[in-house]
Design a protein that fits this description.
Layout: H1 20-72, E1 74-76, E2 82-83, H2 87-92, E3 99-105, E4 110-113, E5 128-134, E6 137-148, E7 151-159, H3 163-210, H4 229-279, H5 292-317, H6 320-323, E8 329-332, H7 333-343, H8 345-350, E9 354-359, E10 363-366, H9 368-385, E11 391-399, E12 402-409, H10 440-450, E13 456-459, E14 466-471
Parallel strand pairs: 9-11
Antiparallel strand pairs: 1-2, 3-4, 3-7, 5-6, 6-7, 8-10, 11-12, 12-14, 13-14
């Protein structure tokens, strides 16, 4: 069975329809590169948070160091007590939005400062730290008993510039947002780099997709990157093995056809002689009586076998890959059509078929013997399947910039859904009358491919019969 090669849809060759292997490589590379970046961003955020914790510890130590200085700032009794602030305390209290203090007696009565800081006094002389929210600000507060000129007092200092709170408020802008932007930018950069890195592999894939199944030539290894070169070598080795096997099959068909032609020709000649003697009127004197019906059947079988051998040989010689190395020559179609008319005139006359010719002088580039084989198969099929009294016409000429070659008949034709299948080897439409091997149109289609054309089948005039032909590519030579 002949396998038709079709170009895959454009959408299937683009992103989203690509083969799973290429898509998998791209996805794995992106994941392997983006995931470490995300991990680094998380680690960076964690270190920032740890840094905020360290700043908070230093803040507690700084507050604790200011407590005795605040106690020493009380120089006289009040009310309220007279304060002479030390420079360090004065610097701390310079911004009242983020700094506050209070001085209370041993019973917790406020002597100086912010009332909201005057709470139950510590029971020991150890400092007490805690966080308290006031006025929409989280304050870090330290309280400690101190001995002053007023006796024992409780000094409380509050710092509203909590690094932990500042980190929580600015984490989106200062940590997360830059990291997210970095990851997104890195994702685009990595994707671009991956696309560039995979470009040779994608080009190799596209080159293989564009190839015809008959094209088993080697891929240029030097055009592939080092990482892909072993794959290219393996593909070339596979192509070589498949090509060798196909060549072996072609040689087998050719050899078998050559070997069959000679004995079949002798057999057919002998049977033809017997058939003539069996069909001739008996001569006086008692000529030999031969079973005419049996001899005619034997003649038909010999003819079919001989035709099959010739068609197999033509099919082997018409292989598109085999003919690539042979140069094409100018071919005149009109004399070719006239020769086919003469060759099939007797067979058409025997069935009372009107075999006609509608030919214009036109020249194409091709292989004359292959075009002769193509036209012979088309005319033979038309004469064979057209009912007695029908008409078969051979056409050649020009349509616009293209030369064409066609055979038209007014026979039963071929249904539209069967026209593609009849181009397959050994396929015959069900219910077809007459003898045949199902190779005529397959050979014609193979020859059309050699000439970079496509065999076309369509209904005849008025939807009756069949027109089979091909249009040659490019401008013809008149």
């Amino acid at each position: 069975m002949k396998h038709e090669w079709t170009q895959p849809p454009a959408a299937a060759r683009r992103r989203g329809g690509e083969p799973g292997i290429t898509l998998g490589l791209r996805r794995r590379l992106l994941v392997m590169l983006i995931v470490p970046l995300l991990l680094l961003a998380v680690i960076n955020a964690w270190y920032d948070y740890r840094s905020a914790d360290n700043v908070a510890v230093r803040q507690d130590q700084g507050l604790l160091a200011l407590v005795p200085l605040m106690a020493d700032s009380i120089v006289a009794e009040g009310p309220p007590p007279v304060l002479l602030l030390a420079p360090a305390v004065q610097e701390f209290l310079r911004d009242p939005r983020h700094a506050a203090y209070s001085i209370s007696d041993a019973d917790g009565k406020l002597l100086h400062g912010e009332p909201w800081l005057a709470t139950l006094p510590p029971t020991t002389r150890e400092p007490e730290f805690h966080t308290e929210e006031h006025g929409g600000v989280a304050w870090r507060i330290v309280r400690q008993r101190q001995h002053t000129v007023l006796g024992d007092v409780v000094v409380a200092l509050a710092d509203g510039s909590d690094p932990g709170q500042q980190w929580a408020r600015s984490v989106l802008i200062r940590v997360l947002l830059p990291n997210v932007v970095l990851v997104i930018a890195a994702a685009f950069a990595v994707r671009w780099a991956v696309e560039r890195a995979l470009k040779p592999l994608l080009e190799l894939r596209d080159a293989l997709e564009r190839r015809s199944p008959r094209d088993l030539s080697s891929i240029d290894e030097t055009a592939s990157p080092d990482e892909v070169r072993p794959l290219v070598k393996s593909l070339n080795r596979l192509f070589g093995l498949v090509d060798a096997q196909a060549e072996s099959q072609r040689r087998f068909i050719a050899d078998a056809s050559h070997q069959l032609r000679t004995p079949l020709a002798g057999l057919q000649a002998q049977v033809e002689a017997w058939a003539q003697a069996a069909n001739a009127p008996n001569q006086p004197g008692g000529s030999l009586q031969l079973p005419a019906e049996e001899v005619n059947k034997l003649r038909g079988a010999a003819r079919r076998t001989s035709q099959l051998a010739n068609q197999l040989l033509a099919l082997s010689r018409a292989d598109a890959r085999t003919m690539q190395a042979q140069p094409m020559q100018p071919v005149d179609l009109k004399p070719l059509c006239e020769a086919m008319l003469e060759a099939h005139f007797d067979a058409a006359a025997a069935k009372r078929i009107d075999l006609g010719l509608d030919a214009q002088a036109v020249q194409v580039t091709g292989h004359e013997w292959l075009l002769r084989e193509l036209l012979g198969n088309l005319v033979d099929n038309a004469v064979k399947y057209t009912p007695a009294g029908g008409a078969v016409t051979i056409h050649c000429g020009r349509r616009g910039p293209h030369a064409f070659l066609e055979v038209e008949d007014d026979g039963p034709g071929i249904a539209a859904d069967e026209r593609q299948r009849v181009l397959e080897r050994f396929y015959r439409v069900r219910g077809t009358l007459g003898e045949g091997n199902g190779l005529g149109l397959a050979i014609a289609d193979e020859i059309a491919r050699v000439h970079h054309a496509q065999l076309q089948l369509r209904a005849g005039a008025g939807g009756r019969g069949l027109i089979v032909g091909l249009a040659f590519p490019g401008p013809e030579k008149p």
